[in-house]
Amino acid sequence: MQIVTPRFGPIEVDESTIITFPRGLPGFEHCHRFKLLHEESPTPIALWLQSLDDTEIVFSVIEPARLAVQYEVALSDEESALLNVKDPADLVLLLLLLRDIENTTEIKANTQAPVILNTASRLALQKMGMRCQLVFSE
Protein backbone atom coordinates (compact mmCIF):
# COMPACT_ATOMS: atom_id res chain seq x y z
CA MET A 1 0.00 0.00 0.00
CA GLN A 2 1.19 3.52 -0.68
CA ILE A 3 0.50 6.63 1.41
CA VAL A 4 1.47 10.25 0.90
CA THR A 5 2.63 12.14 3.97
CA PRO A 6 3.36 15.85 4.33
CA ARG A 7 6.66 15.14 6.13
CA PHE A 8 8.06 12.18 4.17
CA GLY A 9 6.22 12.38 0.85
CA PRO A 10 5.06 9.14 -0.79
CA ILE A 11 5.85 6.00 1.20
CA GLU A 12 5.37 2.38 0.24
CA VAL A 13 4.13 0.46 3.30
CA ASP A 14 4.45 -3.31 3.53
CA GLU A 15 1.17 -4.33 5.20
CA SER A 16 2.98 -6.93 7.31
CA THR A 17 4.88 -4.10 9.06
CA ILE A 18 1.82 -2.11 10.15
CA ILE A 19 1.52 -1.54 13.90
CA THR A 20 -2.04 -1.56 15.23
CA PHE A 21 -3.21 0.30 18.31
CA PRO A 22 -6.58 -1.39 18.96
CA ARG A 23 -7.67 1.53 21.18
CA GLY A 24 -5.87 4.23 19.24
CA LEU A 25 -3.72 6.68 21.19
CA PRO A 26 -5.13 9.00 23.87
CA GLY A 27 -6.35 12.11 22.06
CA PHE A 28 -6.02 10.33 18.70
CA GLU A 29 -8.49 7.47 19.16
CA HIS A 30 -9.36 7.58 15.45
CA CYS A 31 -5.80 6.54 14.56
CA HIS A 32 -5.27 2.78 14.85
CA ARG A 33 -2.72 1.90 12.16
CA PHE A 34 0.85 3.20 12.22
CA LYS A 35 4.15 2.62 10.48
CA LEU A 36 7.43 3.00 12.35
CA LEU A 37 9.91 4.95 10.21
CA HIS A 38 13.57 5.78 10.76
CA GLU A 39 16.29 7.75 9.10
CA GLU A 40 18.75 5.87 6.92
CA SER A 41 21.46 5.44 9.55
CA PRO A 42 22.97 2.37 11.22
CA THR A 43 21.88 3.70 14.64
CA PRO A 44 19.05 6.21 14.28
CA ILE A 45 18.40 8.21 17.43
CA ALA A 46 14.73 9.02 16.94
CA LEU A 47 12.07 7.12 15.07
CA TRP A 48 8.78 8.35 13.67
CA LEU A 49 5.43 6.75 14.32
CA GLN A 50 3.46 7.70 11.21
CA SER A 51 -0.33 7.33 11.28
CA LEU A 52 -1.74 5.54 8.26
CA ASP A 53 -5.31 6.57 9.17
CA ASP A 54 -4.53 10.31 9.24
CA THR A 55 -1.29 11.06 7.42
CA GLU A 56 -1.11 14.53 9.02
CA ILE A 57 -0.28 12.81 12.33
CA VAL A 58 3.26 11.67 13.06
CA PHE A 59 4.98 11.28 16.43
CA SER A 60 8.69 11.28 17.17
CA VAL A 61 9.62 8.38 19.44
CA ILE A 62 12.79 7.16 21.13
CA GLU A 63 13.86 4.04 22.98
CA PRO A 64 14.06 4.73 26.76
CA ALA A 65 17.59 3.30 27.00
CA ARG A 66 18.86 6.15 24.82
CA LEU A 67 17.83 8.49 27.65
CA ALA A 68 19.14 6.22 30.45
CA VAL A 69 15.58 5.45 31.54
CA GLN A 70 14.45 2.01 32.69
CA TYR A 71 10.97 0.67 33.34
CA GLU A 72 9.55 -2.22 35.23
CA VAL A 73 6.35 -2.88 33.33
CA ALA A 74 3.38 -4.69 34.78
CA LEU A 75 0.59 -5.36 32.33
CA SER A 76 -2.92 -6.23 33.40
CA ASP A 77 -4.50 -9.39 32.02
CA GLU A 78 -6.60 -7.18 29.74
CA GLU A 79 -3.52 -5.34 28.42
CA SER A 80 -1.64 -8.63 27.87
CA ALA A 81 -4.61 -9.99 25.93
CA LEU A 82 -4.94 -6.76 23.93
CA LEU A 83 -1.25 -7.03 22.91
CA ASN A 84 -1.49 -10.81 22.42
CA VAL A 85 1.61 -11.33 24.60
CA LYS A 86 3.05 -14.82 24.27
CA ASP A 87 6.66 -13.96 25.14
CA PRO A 88 7.54 -10.84 27.20
CA ALA A 89 10.83 -10.65 25.26
CA ASP A 90 8.76 -9.50 22.25
CA LEU A 91 7.75 -6.29 24.05
CA VAL A 92 9.51 -3.02 23.21
CA LEU A 93 8.97 0.34 24.88
CA LEU A 94 9.06 3.66 23.08
CA LEU A 95 8.70 7.18 24.46
CA LEU A 96 6.83 9.92 22.64
CA LEU A 97 8.91 13.06 22.17
CA LEU A 98 7.30 16.48 22.41
CA ARG A 99 8.35 20.07 22.09
CA ASP A 100 8.12 22.16 25.25
CA ILE A 101 5.27 24.69 24.82
CA GLU A 102 7.10 27.44 26.72
CA ASN A 103 10.60 26.76 25.34
CA THR A 104 10.07 25.62 21.75
CA THR A 105 13.75 24.69 21.29
CA GLU A 106 13.54 22.11 24.07
CA ILE A 107 12.34 18.57 23.41
CA LYS A 108 11.02 16.38 26.20
CA ALA A 109 10.14 12.70 26.40
CA ASN A 110 6.81 11.58 27.86
CA THR A 111 8.22 9.17 30.42
CA GLN A 112 4.89 8.64 32.19
CA ALA A 113 3.06 7.17 29.20
CA PRO A 114 5.33 4.88 27.15
CA VAL A 115 4.16 3.04 24.08
CA ILE A 116 4.36 -0.72 24.53
CA LEU A 117 4.79 -2.58 21.25
CA ASN A 118 4.59 -6.33 20.80
CA THR A 119 6.99 -6.90 17.90
CA ALA A 120 5.59 -10.38 17.25
CA SER A 121 1.91 -9.45 16.98
CA ARG A 122 2.50 -5.83 15.80
CA LEU A 123 -0.03 -4.68 18.43
CA ALA A 124 0.61 -1.67 20.65
CA LEU A 125 -0.86 0.52 23.36
CA GLN A 126 0.12 3.60 25.27
CA LYS A 127 0.27 2.84 29.00
CA MET A 128 -0.62 5.84 31.12
CA GLY A 129 0.73 6.58 34.58
CA MET A 130 4.00 4.64 34.41
CA ARG A 131 6.96 5.41 36.64
CA CYS A 132 10.46 5.23 35.27
CA GLN A 133 13.85 5.04 36.89
CA LEU A 134 16.79 7.09 35.70
CA VAL A 135 19.97 5.05 35.39
CA PHE A 136 23.36 6.70 35.40
CA SER A 137 26.41 4.67 34.45
CA GLU A 138 29.87 5.66 35.58
Automatic annotation (TrEMBL):
Coiled coil region boundaries: none
Pfam families noted in UniProt: FliW
Localisation: Cytoplasm
Main location: cytoplasm
Top-rank taxon, per record: Bacteria
Keyword Chaperone listed: yes
Subunit structure: Interacts with translational regulator CsrA and flagellin(s).
Protein name: Flagellar assembly factor FliW
Designated gene of the protein: fliW
